[in-house]
């Protein structure tokens, strides 16, 4: 199972972002492998590592962690999750609205490090206007995740999905991947 997870992870990396970008930093694959080893027992027992919360609703079971204290580009945010055996969060149509409320409430209690923005595990970096989740699943253009009028079709400089709490009430927009936002990490248990 561990090897299946690693192969899945590497295939998904390549599905959404060319693997050679990661191979320029050879340690990252090893660090991802170590991350998967760390969470392996949790996946087997359906428990969450420290600082992660268990979610049993739609799309679960999975663990998630809203990392309010780090401010990163999309790729760096994703790497932060990957080395913990996680990945950037993906949502279902049903659980998104629940998480959006949770993220809004959390921001109101405890402001995020770089403003009201959070990265989603979604990108069209590989093929412009073809939005993919990091799981390899396709994200439809009329998904409830998107803010009205988003994504901006043909915006090749905006290839990463972000929840924008500044203007759009934490619905998703396409943003420049070098923008800084907090990661939300997710570990699927099933
Ligand atoms: Ca784009």
TrEMBL record:
<dbReference type="InterPro" id="IPR016186">
    <property type="entry name" value="C-type_lectin-like/link_sf"/>
</dbReference>
<feature type="domain" description="C-type lectin">
    <location>
        <begin position="59"/>
        <end position="186"/>
    </location>
</feature>
<protein>
    <recommendedName>
        <fullName>C-type lectin domain-containing protein</fullName>
    </recommendedName>
</protein>
<dbReference type="Pfam" id="PF00059">
    <property type="entry name" value="Lectin_C"/>
</dbReference>
<dbReference type="InterPro" id="IPR016187">
    <property type="entry name" value="CTDL_fold"/>
</dbReference>
<keyword id="KW-0732">Signal</keyword>
<feature type="signal peptide">
    <location>
        <begin position="1"/>
        <end position="18"/>
    </location>
</feature>
<dbReference type="InterPro" id="IPR001304">
    <property type="entry name" value="C-type_lectin-like"/>
</dbReference>
């Amino acid at each position: 199972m561990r090897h299946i997870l690693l192969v899945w992870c590497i295939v998904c990396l390549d599905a959404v972002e060319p693997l050679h970008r990661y191979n320029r930093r050879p340690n990252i694959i090893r660090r991802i492998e170590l991350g998967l080893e760390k969470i392996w027992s949790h996946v087997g027992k359906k428990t969450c590592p420290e600082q992660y919360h268990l979610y049993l609703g739609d799309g679960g079971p999975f663990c998630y962690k809203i990392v309010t204290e780090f401010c990163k580009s999309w790729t760096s945010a994703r790497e932060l999750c990957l080395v913990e055996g996680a990945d950037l969060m993906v949502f279902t149509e049903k659980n998104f609205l629940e998480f959006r409320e949770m993220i809004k409430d959390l921001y109101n209690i405890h402001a995020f490090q770089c403003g009201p923005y959070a990265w989603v595990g979604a990108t069209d970096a590989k093929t412009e206007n073809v939005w993919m989740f990091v799981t390899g699943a396709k994200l439809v253009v009329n998904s409830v995740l998107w803010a009205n009028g988003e994504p901006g079709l043909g915006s090749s400089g905006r290839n990463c999905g972000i929840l924008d709490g500044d203007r759009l009430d934490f619905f998703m927009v396409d943003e420049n991947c070098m923008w800084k936002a907090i990661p939300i990490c997710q570990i699927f248990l099933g």
